[in-house]
Design a protein that fits this description.
CATH architecture of the largest domain: 2-Layer Sandwich
Strand order of the largest sheet: 14-13-12-11-7-10-9-8-15-16
Number of helices: 11
CATH class of the largest domain: Alpha Beta
Helix content: 25-40%
Low-confidence stretches: 1-5
Oligomer: single chain
Strand content: 15-25%
Number of strands: 16
Mean pLDDT: 96
Length: 383
């Protein structure tokens, strides 16, 4: 049986049958965005916890349900899958889906480790599959407008610094509810662990997986991946030459292994640095990107952008973004590409490169050293 035995050519009026793998809050939200497009039929849902499946099927009432994604991928009628599992399952699930001939929309970060990216890119290319990573700013209208207006034209002059920050993200402080304190009978803990070494059931490591480096990359891969992707999008450089980081678990000593406070600094061959600053402490909140050049600076977040010229007395230019949730445009871009076979806005290679930049920050943090990175071979250089 060939890898593409389950793929089919879609006609203009054919429904696209979607399978959801990972039925948690984000997966169900993304699924509803897909369902707003009349060409989508959610035909299957999959999760290791029965309660999540039940919640997904309240919206996708005719979908078949599975606890093992490999069984879902055996459905010949499924054309594309939406992957919204915890990070440690992203790579294997995406590989399995691409090799089964399915187009893939996978939530960011594409990978848990820096080594996982190239095989996924290869699988997408070898199998001629569309693979969109959920970095929705790539489809955000005001992000695209800002790129055309200020970066494609060089209005900022020589860019020397890209600052990014994301403070007070309370999602990383979530506490497991009472219903999860003892393992539910319909939650497959062994399947949840998957490639991660065995440990006894822990409600926090299930419910708040982003706080544990075995399951995710903390604030760096969850939040910085979005923002460094914006920097890559606007400035056109995707591979850092070096990385350094510092931080720690300074306050939230609740068993987490990901730092509650982190600073990352990346350097790029084009001659600028990109930084990320984040703390879970609620004393400061907010998330944005600010790119500074010799002729001005551009501030951008999910709601708007501002251009401040270096010219004395020049009024700022402020443009509001729309719509509020860019996910719908990102989903529709993926659906369009499933039909046209064109590369999507956040193609798998783009997703790999932005995750890779984040991973370099985390590796520098864990190893407590400055990393040098070979931009051609895309590998960390030895000391």
């Amino acid at each position: 049986m060939t890898a593409l035995s389950y793929s089919r050519v879609l006609g203009a009026n054919d429904k696209i049958n979607l399978g959801l793998i990972g039925c948690g809050e984000r997966g169900r939200h993304d699924m509803t965005q897909f369902m707003l497009n009349s060409s989508i039929n959610v035909s299957a849902v999959c999760d290791i916890y029965g309660e999540q499946i039940d919640k997904a099927r309240q919206k996708a009432t005719t979908a078949k349900n599975f606890s093992d994604h490999r069984k879902l991928l055996e459905m010949k009628e499924v054309d594309a899958v939406l992957i919204a599992t915890p990070d440690h399952w992203h790579a294997q699930t995406a590989l399995d889906a691409l090799n089964a001939g399915k187009d893939v929309y996978v939530e960011k970060p594409l990978t848990l480790t820096i080594e996982e990216g190239p095989p996924i890119v290869k699988a997408a290319r070898v199998n001629n599959r569309i693979c969109q990573v959920g970095m929705q700013q790539r489809s955000g209208r005001h992000y695209i407008q800002a790129k055309k207006e200020y970066f494609d034209t060089g209005k900022l002059g020589k860019v020397t610094l890209a600052r990014t920050w994301w403070h007070g993200n309370s999602y990383h402080l979530r506490k497991a509810p009472a219903s999860l304190q003892s393992k539910p009978s319909n939650l497959d803990w062994a399947r949840y662990l998957g490639p991660v070494k065995w440990r006894d059931y822990d409600p926090q490591q299930y419910y708040n997986f982003r706080a544990y480096l075995d399951f995710g990359g903390g604030q760096v891969t969850d939040l910085f991946t979005h923002w460094i992707d914006v920097v890559h999008m606007l400035l056109g450089n995707e591979i850092p030459t070096s990385a350094v980081a510092a931080g720690g678990i300074y306050h939230y000593k609740d068993g987490r292994t990901a730092p509650d406070t982190i600073n990352v600094l990346l350097e790029y061959a084009a001659g600028y640095t990109a930084t990320f600053e984040a703390t879970l402490a609620p004393g400061i909140r907010g998330a944005a990107v600010e790119i500074c050049g010799t002729e001005g600076r551009l501030f951008i977040d999910r709601g708007h952008y501002e251009f401040h010229s270096a010219e004395k007395g020049a009024p700022p230019v402020i443009v509001k973004g729309e719509p509020p949730d860019m996910t719908i445009d990102h989903v529709n871009n993926f659906i369009d590409c499933v039909r046209s076979r064109k590369l999507p806005n956040a193609d798998v290679l783009i997703g790999h490169r932005s995750a890779q930049a984040s991973h370099l920050g985390n590796i520098a943090y864990v190893q407590k050293r400055r990393l040098a990175f070979d931009t051609v071979r895309e590998e960390i250089l030895p000391l």
